[in-house]
Specification:
- The protein is an all-alpha fold and 134 residues long.
- The longest helix is centred in the middle third of the chain and has 37 residues, at 53-89.
- It has 4 helices and no strands.
- The model is unreliable at 1-5 (pLDDT under 50).
Length: 134
């Protein structure tokens, strides 16, 4: 499972330090999820193929049980990854303080995808209207 990894030129050139830091935190969390999935998969799928028929049958049953465990774990990580990607998609000057606060307290994980996106959209629209009125 490989995810988006920005190159230095992928980040906008005129950023505040907070925006830059928030991008780095998000990318780090996304990369950590990738690492967790790979490590977990390797841990539960690596086994030797030598042994007797009964030993191989037990290994196959264990492998099936491990796959169920892997799928459950990956589903949990997938939910977290989607939330992080929503944060990254809405990361702009208008929303940076909100997203930074959500990341530092891990509060983003308490929201559904729809609710998180709605909150960030409302925040961005409110601040854009405030700028337009000034």
């Amino acid at each position: 499972m490989r995810h988006y990894r920005p190159k230095n030129s992928a980040l906008p050139s005129k950023q505040t330090p907070l925006l830059t830091q928030t991008f780095l935190i998000l990318d780090s969390k996304i990369q950590y999820i990738d690492h967790q999935v790979q490590s977990y998969f390797e841990l539960y799928t690596c086994s030797s193929s030598s042994g007797s028929d009964s030993s191989n049958t037990l290994k196959e049953q264990s492998f099936v049980q491990n796959l169920d465990s892997i799928l459950g774990y990956v589903e949990t990580l997938q939910t977290n990854l989607k939330l992080l990607q929503i944060l990254r998609a809405w990361l702009k000057e208008e929303t940076v303080s909100e997203i930074y606060a959500l990341l530092n307290s891990n509060a983003y994980s308490n929201y559904s995808e729809e609710k998180l996106e709605k909150i960030l959209k409302q925040k961005a629209l409110y601040l854009l209207r405030m700028k337009a009125n000034c």
